[in-house]
Fold these 4 entries.
Entry 1:
Amino acid sequence: MEAVKLHLAVFGNDTIEFYQASGKYNLGPGVDVLATLGYANYKDERKGTMGVSDAAYENSGFAAMTGLSLAF
């Protein structure tokens, strides 16, 4: 009887790029407005090897966050 080997993970050079900019503006004593913008890009090592289904190996997106800080 022969053993069956399964390869569930592929070792290689996946890449993740992430960029983020954050800022804070003071409106008055104890009151701040906060904001963050971000962009992420992921590419699997298999990108460019699968033809039509290639889009499954790349993903990117933007993120935005705002907030209000109150300190007493």
Note: The chain has no helices and three strands.
Entry 2:
Amino acid sequence: MNRVEATLLNTPPALVALPRRLDLHASDPQDFRQRLRDYFVQTFDAYESLFRTLAGDAAWVEKPITLRHPLIFYYGHTATFFVNKLLLTRLITERIDPQLESIFAVGVDEMSWDDLDAAHYDWPPWRACRPTATGCARWSPA
């Protein structure tokens, strides 16, 4: 598998080839679970590779526009979304980092109820979020 190492997040991005879609027709459930996992890992690697383009640590905590959270939120939010889905489907049995997952579980809507006040957040360094981001791809088909 092509897992992105933490040290590679600061290297120039490489193109990631993805299948256009996952073939949902399968006769062997174990084979399908493995293909589903591989597809997930490839897709998550492609998403994670987008963050390699950030110029430095400060870019992670700057808001791209005032109606959005800083980029660190989207990095952790996507991983938290997948952790929640993997738990729901019982593909993993425990949370990876409950504290970080609670930070990133808030919404991404620009509505007034979505708290975008920077004073209400103490964003962790992106390196602290790395285990949650990579851990959601470590499940193995049962």
Note: The chain has a mean pLDDT of 75.
Entry 3:
Amino acid sequence: MNAKKIDESGQFEFWIEERNILIIRLVDKDGGKEIGPEDARHSLMVQERLYKEQGQKLLILGNLGELSKINKAAREFAKSNEGQAINQYTLAYALIASNRLNRMMGNMFGRIFRRSYPIKMFTSEEKAINWLLEQRNDQEAST
């Protein structure tokens, strides 16, 4: 898979994959493995920018890496009207959760966001990408 790094901030790196999939990778820069509201806001800003550049909703692949915590302020941001703007920019969201803790965190993501798009968890990046591409194909077929 060919991908180009387009941004980074806090605990995240943002990559665009050759089939126009936004990949968000958790990087443990400060040893905290915790997502804060600054991380969430920056992620939303990157998604908004790409949505405007591409003129279409995004396919997003989130790799949870070794995530251990989403702090309370980040959860509150995700529930806020500002945080819910993700619904405007997202066609489908796949999460890579390689271990039990990551799957629990992924399930929490699903509960935090009142979403208008499908979200699904995978253990394999290849399966996640295939599912995302199916979502795009389904959306294109229905329009």
Note: The chain has a mean pLDDT of 84.
Entry 4:
Amino acid sequence: MLSLWLSGVDAWMGAVHGMSFAELQREQIRLVHEFAAQVTQAWGAGWMPSLPAKQPSITERMAALSLRVVAGGRR
């Protein structure tokens, strides 16, 4: 009976060890990906051309124009 109980405990401990090892592996992979993204962002910024400024939408341009007209003309 003791042998059966110890065998069950051993199987359970093996499963727990496997799950904890898998979780540790997932955490390491996540950290490596995060580190790679940070390095790419830090070093890549100097090599990438700057993006052109976003042009305001037609609605935003019309609103700004109407505000200028109400305020007394172009500036």
Note: The first helix runs from residue 2 to 47.
